[in-house]
Design goal:
With 387 residues, this protein is an alpha+beta fold. 26% of the residues lie in helices and 20% in strands.
């Protein structure tokens, strides 16, 4: 895969070589004999995370692993004129299997650990396969967007995640090398998750840059995922899902100027614990009808948890794997998975009217993708849809 200027990206090169240098330079240096050697117990080796199978009914990187890895790189690209999507996807699937198995020489000796790669195709490619298929509709425009044309839409999504930050740019470079001239990159975003906070019922979620626990609500049980996450038909897309990817800048100074009580009123949850302002536990969800003795809602009318509540909006649940970013500006890479695009669009439309959180956000990139069903050696990635 190459960028639109058809030259190797210096930034991408530095991402890889810099990451490798950070890990490898000290190992190759001659030790100073005058410096005491560290004891065997001073720096215990970090355990390598368990491998995540790349093949199966669903693609990895959506519900597995749980909780999600701490490092992510999203790459959005377009298919070059004349390039065949089916063979490209099949090759990417083979590369993903080799990378996650640790057999691809382009890993440069790194152990794959819990590396996952999730591939989605954009509305233009889906419409070419069938205008009525899920994922064929473009994501509409919303308020509070400041999006360059290059950062809106796209034909291909590569979501690359790993606990080891070194693996992410190295795996991306291998996938882009495999794609070659057949795709042209639109934009990319590196991001990371904060430390996971237990929220009850065996679930954990990270904090975002605003200090609040992010991604508590979602289709977490198998039954919820069958209902709201995985596509059940047509057969070409069954067991896939729909992804929305949006990059948002956050106005951190203005939010930080609020008192803690004011910040909690924006979200409708306690900042420290994630517990709704109506009480209960973080995982139990808010009681939207609960009021104070003088008749005020405990969860304010414009609080984010009320405006985005699935029952109030009248849609299913969306699974969020949100990550924090610090460039090009501090913010959030919002990624949601759902089996109906209306789950996202109806929610954001309702938030647009009076959600107290939105004035602190500006969206700078936006796209939606059909995340393809799972694959294996006999059934290449994308083969059901693109043959």
């Amino acid at each position: 895969m190459r960028r639109v200027d058809h030259r190797p990206s210096r930034r991408a090169f530095l991402d890889v070589t810099g990451a490798l240098a950070a890990a490898g330079l000290t190992a190759g240096c001659t030790p100073d004999p005058a410096r005491p050697r560290p004891s065997a117990t001073a720096a215990p080796a970090t355990a390598i995370p368990a491998a995540v199978p790349a093949t199966g009914r669903h693609q990895a990187g959506v519900t597995v692993p749980r909780p999600a890895q701490h490092n992510l790189l999203a790459v959005v690209a377009d298919l070059a004129a004349g390039a065949a999507v089916g063979p490209l996807l099949a090759e990417l699937g083979d590369t993903i299997r080799a990378l996650t198995a640790g057999t691809d020489r382009r890993l440069l000796g790194l152990v794959p650990g819990d590396l996952t790669v999730t591939v989605g195709v954009g509305p233009r490619l889906v419409r070419a396969a069938g205008a009525s298929l899920p994922g064929a509709a473009d994501l509409p425009r919303f308020s509070r967007e400041r999006i360059d044309p290059r950062a809106r839409g796209g034909d291909l999504l590569l979501q690359i995640c790993a606990s080891d930050a070194l693996l992410v740019p190295v795996a991306a470079a291998a996938l882009l090398d495999q794609a070659g001239d057949r795709v042209r990159e639109r934009w990319r975003q590196s991001a990371r998750r904060g430390a996971d906070v237990p929220v009850g019922e065996g679930l954990a979620a990270p904090r975002n840059l605003l200090g609040f626990i992010d991604g508590i609500v979602g289709p977490h049980t198998a039954a919820e995922q069958r209902r709201d996450l995985w596509l059940s038909g047509p057969p070409e897309v069954a067991d896939g899902t729909l992804a929305v990817v949006r990059r948002m800048e956050l106005d951190l100074p203005r939010f930080a100027a609020l008192s803690v009580a004011e910040q909690e009123a924006v979200f409708g949850r306690r900042r420290a614990s994630g517990v709704p302002l109506s009480g209960g536990t973080a995982a139990s969800g808010p009681e939207l009808g609960a009021k104070t003795p003088d008749g005020r809602y405990l969860v304010p009318a414009d609080a984010h948890v009320r405006r985005a509540h699935a029952t109030v909006v009248g849609v299913g649940l969306m699974l969020r794997r949100s990550y924090s970013i610090d460039e090009p500006a501090p913010g959030l890479l919002f990624i949601s998975f759902q089996n109906d695009l209306r789950t996202f669009t109806a929610t954001l439309t309702r938030m647009d009217t009076s959600d107290a959180l939105l004035p602190f956000t500006t969206t700078t990139a936006s796209a939606s993708f059909l995340v393809l069903p799972g694959f294996d050696r006999r059934h290449p990635l994308g083969s059901r849809l693109f043959g």
